[in-house]
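My main concern about presentation is that the manuscript never shows what a single data entry looks like. For the editor and my fellow referees, an illustration may be useful. For illustration, here is how one protein appears when written out as sequence plus structure tokens:

***
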Amino acid sequence: MGGMGGDIGSWLDFDDIERWAAEARARDAVDARQRERWLRRQAEDEAAFASLLLGLAERRVAAIVTTTGGRHHVGRIEAVGADFAALGAAGGRITMVSLAAVAAVRVADAAEARRHRDHRRSEPAADARPDHGERTIGVVMSDVIGHAVERRPRVQVFAGGAQLGGELRAVGADVVTLHTDGDPPGLLYVRLASVSEFSFLDSG
């Protein structure tokens, strides 16, 4: 390569770099297509599961929701959001479980489970179903948390392997702030993306 003095010209071959870059871009394009197919499949699976949960919510069925962390929540599915299902339990406690954290759902009553199964078999095609109404909420979990901030309720949060609790103080784009009663008391910042379960213990 003319004009490239010293040792640089021995390895800085732009033709070779161009070939390397083209191959890298081709690999990236293949990886991107594979990731797109995976994400599309994941979205379809989540939509199908959300539809099942919605059916339980519409029928006011008591269910047992088991999370990927091995915890069990018993109650009626009150609503299904874009990324969560909300369960109402005894005492008015509401728990939001991330759809990504739901491992299994079991209908608590065997007879009702059979009725629900038969009902799903007789459902019309998805594009022929009526609007699900108030059981479907066009919001995400962070919207619900943000709406509750003003009341400062006491909450319990499972994030990763941690169980956390305190008074809800704020929510941002990617963080939930709690005030804890530890020794000493103080603010606790929880990464929102890590939250699998979020329970309101009182109305504040």
